[in-house]
Amino acid sequence: MVRARLSAIASAGSMEMRIAIFSDVHGNLQALDAVLADIAAQTPDAVYCLGDLVGYGGNPNEVTERIRRDGFPTVMGNYDDGVGYDRDECGCAYTEERDRLLGDRSLAWTKARTTAENKAFLKTLVKEIRFDADGKRILLVHGSPRKMNEYLFEDRAISSFQRLAASSSADVIAFGHTHKPYTREVDGVLFLNDGSVGKPKDGDWRACYAILENGVATFRRVNYDVRAAAAAIRATDLPHEFAEDIETGGGPRSARSSADRR
């Protein structure tokens, strides 16, 4: 029903809509399945994905094929770009050398195992999606309206948000990439970070997505079989740190006991 209504919604212009927005699945099929089941229960008018289907998780092909099959309009994430185009780096801003080395392993593993058909699909994803709903101009991107891999953290200087508010021709800007959900209103523009389905980094392991309705965003946290998702990572050559990341909701690795590391 959601897919059937998308073309009608796009042509209708401004109208009341209940919109589900999710992103940053990162190869976590178990989290994606749970979120899509929860979304279906919310009976939205439309469902949008803000990218980063692959990377870090053990099921890049299954996740990509699910998004393809369900036909959700999807924005290209930096990891989709890196894998789809077989780039040498994923556009991730690692601040520590250890994280960069782990990230390099993730990118190499994911590129090697993502099928040519799924890479071709990732290359078709768009850089942004715009539409009107509830009398508001909605802009969907992955990182920011400026760059797909720009991190818009909640504590960023207000001047940065003010520049984006003035230049983006939107009343709502929805994005992901940081894996930390929040809303912030600046100069009449609602900035909405929808968190992460498959790799949260806010200390809560549950999958996260957002419902946008009448200009108000609500976050939903969804339980899923995180043990199965972690086992899918540990069954591969991916670094086992990625399994620990999803089990802890992205808690600091330095705080984990050495006995928990593999």
List the helices and strands and how they pair.
Blueprint: H1 2-12, E1 18-22, H2 29-41, E2 46-49, H3 60-70, H4 78-84, H5 97-113, H6 116-124, E3 129-133, E4 136-140, H7 158-167, E5 172-175, E6 182-186, E7 189-193, E8 207-213, E9 216-222, H8 226-234, H9 241-248
Parallel strand pairs: 1-2, 4-5, 5-7
Antiparallel strand pairs: 1-8, 3-4, 6-7, 8-9
User: What characteristic shape results from the CA principal axes?
Assistant: globular
Question: Order of strands in the sheet with the most strands?
Answer: 3-4-5-7-6
Structural class: alpha/beta
Kindly estimate the percentage of residues that lie in beta strands according to DSSP: 15-25%
By CATH, the topology is Purple Acid Phosphatase, chain A, domain 2
Main sheet characteristics = 5 strands, mixed
Q: Total helix count?
A: 9
CATH architecture: 4-Layer Sandwich
Order of helices and strands: HEHEHHHHEEHEEEEEHH
Distance between the termini: 44 Å
Low-pLDDT runs: 1-13, 256-262
Query: pLDDT average, as an integer?
Result: 92
As a percent range, the share of helical residues equals 25-40%
